[in-house]
Amino acid sequence: MTELVLAQAGAQIVSLLVYGTIAAWYVAPWLRRRGRADALIALLWVQVFRYVALQVFSAQRDGFPISDAGAMDIVVGDVAGAAIAFVAIILLRRRSRAGIPLVWLLVAETAYDTVTNIHGGIREHLMGAASGAIWLVLVFFVPMIVVSLVLLVWQLLARRQEALDAAQRPQPHLHAAPVAATP
Fold first, then answer.
1. Spatial distance between the Cα atoms of 66 and 125, rounded to a whole number of angstroms
2. In which band, very low, low, confident or very high, does the pLDDT at 166 lie, cut at 50, 70 and 90?
3. Segment 7-27 mean pLDDT
4. Is residue 86 a contact partner of residue 71, using CB atoms and an 8 Å limit?
5. Does 86 or 174 have the greater pLDDT score?
6. Of the residues 16, 81, 113, 160, which has the fewest C-beta atoms closer than 10 A?
7. How is the chain classified by DSSP, letter by letter?
8. What pLDDT sits at residue 174?
9. Nearest residue to 47 via CA among 112, 142, 133, 119
């Protein structure tokens, strides 16, 4: 393995660990205090920005050694995922139950897209070849997509019996000492 491969793989793993920690310490408790639809919507917004994959065409022009077919596979999968996420947000904001199957479709599409992109990257020897913006996308954004996907699956399974229009869950209150009345 070259230093470039180790740097990219190491940075991706560190990003996964950092995002996982943020998810466990901050995002998961926050999601628990939201209604089902609002929790899913918050996670879906991360997926909407997958159109950043269009940057692969610029990276290819600048020397990223991906084939035209490989670049198109990445773009089609990620732009489709972004569109599915956006439509799911619209449906969930309207509290339409059709939003839930669409979120499951996004989960399946993203899992397939991720595996396909990893396989294509291995086949085309792309690990360690990224630089510039594509390196940032692979190291920071892709791990965020993966963690968001895990959180989406958790919310879909853990809250499958909960109505979409459930009111926001109550937040714990800090109890202040009673104030003495003044005469």
1. 9
2. low
3. 96
4. no
5. 86
6. 160
7. --HHHHHHHHHHHHHHHHHHHHIIIIIHHHHHTS-HHHHHHHHHHHHHGGGGGGHHHHHHHTT----HHHHHHHHHHHHHHHHHHHHHHHHHHTT-TTHHHHHHHHHHHHHHHHHHHHHHHHHTT-TTT--HHHHHIIIIIHHHHHHHHHHHHHHHHHTTTS-TTPPPPPPP-PPPPPPPPP-
8. 52
9. 142
Question: What's at 78, amino acid-wise?
Answer: D
Which residues, including other chains, have CB under 8 Å from residue 120's CB and lie 6 or more apart?
70, 73, 74, 126
In angstroms, the CA 4 to CA 22 distance is 27
The distance from CA 68 to its chain's CA centroid, rounded to whole angstroms, is 25
Q: Which two tokens stand for residue 165?
A: 């229009």
CA distances from 146 to 7, 43, 56, 87, 107 (A): 19, 11, 19, 20, 10
What is the Cα–Cα distance from 177 to 179, expressed in whole angstroms? 6
Handedness of CA 113, 73, 122, 55 (dihedral sign): negative
Say what the pLDDT of residue 127 is: 86
